[in-house]
Amino acid sequence: MIEVPASKKECFFEDLHVNDQMTVTYQVGGGGHLDIDFWLADPENHALGKHIKQTTGSVAVTATKDGRHEYCFSNQMSAVADKLVSFNVHGVIYVGEDEAIAPVEREIRELANELKTIKDEQEYIVLRERRHRDTAESTNARVKWWSILQAILVFSVVGWQVYYLKSFFEVKRVI
Q1: What sections of the sequence does the record tag as coiled-coil (predicted)?
Q2: pTM for this structure?
Q3: What span, in angstroms and rounded, lies between the C-alpha atoms of 125 and 27?
Q4: Where are any strands of DSSP class E within 17-164?
């Protein structure tokens, strides 16, 4: 999880070879409207994926060129709110046909990939739970203050009504 300050961007790099696969998934966990700009570029700085003001996203690419691939999270649209972003990078290193892999090693790689997927899903669930808990707590606080305001208003109206009704029963004499 990273914090992207207001009006800033955070960039990361992955060195890929031709036919390597990479998937970047992200979710904004806190700050502002829970949106962020994201893009992924190849070594020649051509955009391979771009998301504007998204809460969650995923971009999968297969490298067509050797070199450093850059992915950035930008919070430049916000002047005040810092954003908390959780992201995962999954990479599948391309294995050529000429490389022989033992069946056990292939199974181990598949299990490792599945474990990464499960771990990422659990992190996503934790972020969603945190977001929903924050929403529930915020709603609970608003209901509490609205109830207090209504109670004050009801007691004020009751006090005014008692005062007003007492004035009907007062004897007014002119001497």
Answers
A1: none
A2: 0.59
A3: 11
A4: 21-30, 36-41, 47-54, 56-62, 67-74, 83-92
How many angstroms separate the Cα of 165 from the Cα of each of 14, 37, 161, 168, 169?
79, 63, 6, 5, 7
Q: Which two tokens stand for residue 121?
A: 């899903």
Q: Report the distance separating Cα 75 and Cα 53, nearest Å.
A: 9
Q: Are the C-beta atoms of 89 and 24 separated by less than 8 Å?
A: yes
d(C-alpha 85, C-alpha 56), whole Å? 9
pLDDT, averaged per 10 consecutive residues of the chain (175 residues), comes to 89 88 88 88 90 90 90 90 88 58 83 87 86 92 97 97 89 73
Residues in Cβ contact with 71 at an 8 Å cutoff, skipping those fewer than 6 apart: 11, 12, 13, 14, 24, 38, 39, 40, 41, 59, 89
Could you give the CA distance from residue 42 to residue 59 in angstroms, rounded to a whole number?
Answer: 13
Residue 79 has a CB neighbour count (10 Å cut-off) of 9
Q: Please count the CA atoms within 13 angstroms of the CA of 90 that sit on its side-chain side.
A: 19
CA-CA distance, 56 to 154, in Å (whole number)? 45
Neighbours of 46 (CB within 10 A): 9
